[in-house]
Design brief:
Largest sheet: none
Radius of gyration: 18 Å
Structural class: mainly alpha
Oligomer: single chain
Order of helices and strands: HHHHHHHHHHHH
Number of strands: 0
Strand content: under 5%
Helix content: over 70%
Number of helices: 12
Number of domains: 1
Distance between the termini: 63 Å
């Protein structure tokens, strides 16, 4: 029988080990290419990382907001945005997972199986996405952002809130949860954030709304380093942005989790919805434009 006292130290150790492995790979790749970094800004990418991970910790999600800021401030090529999101935010997300798996109760077997299924999905997805051409990335992310906006609207309107106290699943419901999280893990590698869909999944499964936090944060903390290693190997990510965000994002997480803790999010959610829809339109328009002949 798996219990919290048995599994929690193992999970935290797993998060830490994955974080160290990714950090070492990122530093080595950065050192190898330090004279060939992208022409973007340390300051802008650092601020993007801080803001997006601050909001991420409060449940907004970082992928959609970060993609919007990358596009608006022109800090990354579209082709490498999915890889950058997974590499850059892995360490800040690990910090989130270590915090929230300790303070929010989830039945251990449910948590472990959903986390492992997300990782399995990411292994499948990263190998495909890392090799996609820019037009397909733009098209995929354009639709993904539009779907994400739908989830954010549903959350803003209160359709993803649950009042139940269920903290674990079994039987058919557990199988559905594990299968759905596998799909969400695969979609993460294409730049589709897992937080909003995972909140919707938890609500549909009848679980307590609070359980979404360790499930979604733990899933991302395990799958993002695994997927990130693939993107680093393929060189399919923005090195300068990833290095900056990995550092500043941790500060955003700690301030949100331990100092701010909560904010009146109603108006901010609607602002994020508008920004995400705008970015979706921009991505889709870029994907549908004929490629310029050089």
């Amino acid at each position: 029988m798996i219990n919290k006292e048995m599994i929690l130290p193992v999970l935290i150790a797993a998060f830490a080990v994955l974080g160290v492995i990714l950090a070492v790979a990122l530093i080595r790749d950065y050192q190898k290419h330090k004279n060939q970094l992208e022409p973007n800004s340390w300051t802008k990418t650092g601020l993007i990382g801080f803001i997006s991970n601050f909001l991420d910790t409060l449940g907004i999600g970082s992928f959609a907001t970060e993609t919007a800021m990358f596009k608006f401030f022109r800090q990354s090529e579209d082709r490498v945005i999915p890889g950058t999101l997974n590499v850059a935010n892995a360490i800040p997300t690990i910090a989130q997972a270590i915090i929230y798996t300790q303070i929010v109760e989830v039945e251990p077997l449910t948590l472990v199986l959903m986390l492992l299924s997300a990782v399995a999905g990411s292994v499948l997805g990263a190998g495909i996405v890392a090799k996609l051409p820019e037009k397909k990335i733009q098209l995929t992310m354009g639709f993904a952002l539009f779907v994400t906006a739908g989830f954010l609207v549903a959350k803003a309107l209160g359709y993803m809130e649950t009042t139940g106290e269920v903290i674990g699943l079994e039987g058919k419901m557990l199988a559905i949860g594990v299968g759905a999280n596998f799909v969400l893990g695969a979609l993460m590698t294409a730049g589709i954030g897992l937080y909003a869909p995972c909140m919707a999944l938890v609500a549909m499964l009848g679980m307590s709304a609070k359980t979404a936090f360790p499930i979604m944060m733990g899933s991302c903390a395990m799958l993002m380093p695994v997927a990130g290693l693939k993107f680093i190997k393929e060189g399919a990510y923005n090195r300068r942005a990833s290095f900056a965000i990995a550092i500043t994002g941790v500060f955003g997480v700690l301030i949100a989790a331990y100092i701010v803790k909560s904010l009146p999010m109603e108006y901010l959610r609607w602002l994020v919805v508008l920004v995400v829809i705008y970015t979706s339109v921009v991505m889709l328009r870029s994907a549908l434009q004929p490629k310029a002949i050089k």
